[in-house]
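Repro:
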Amino acid sequence: MIRLAVALAWLAMPAAAQDIAFSPAPTEACLAAGPTDPATCIGHAADACMLETDGGETTVGMGACLSAELEWWAARLAAAEKGVADAAAATDAEMVAIGATVPMQAPAFDAMRAAWAAWRNAACDWERAQWGGGTGQGPATAACLMRITGEQALALEAWLAEQARR
């Protein structure tokens, strides 16, 4: 689903070959510093990419850098989702084994994930609409997708970390 959103963001930008200087290091360094709100780290790598890439200040350059960080967050999100899904399946199996009649976690997580993806896409469609078809809609959409995807990745990673402490 995230790949479709990235493709849509790219379609909104003019076609051009763009070599970008993307590295996740600035975002990783921010996260490693342990900020009170890790979400404040989202976008650090894209910002650095825009500064270090020839043409990074252009619509195409901004979109490419934002999309690169979005892909990085999407990979983190996919890993966190797998961890949560595995934990939910294990808990569900334990509950079935002991004959508990509790709501199953795996289907609830799947429903939440689908609803979240629909909400993210709608929120970023709304963001894109704010640009009235202008050239800023591509980078604005990529920035929106990056931010919301990063926030979800961080939330699920925090949940997994909390479960590991128990």
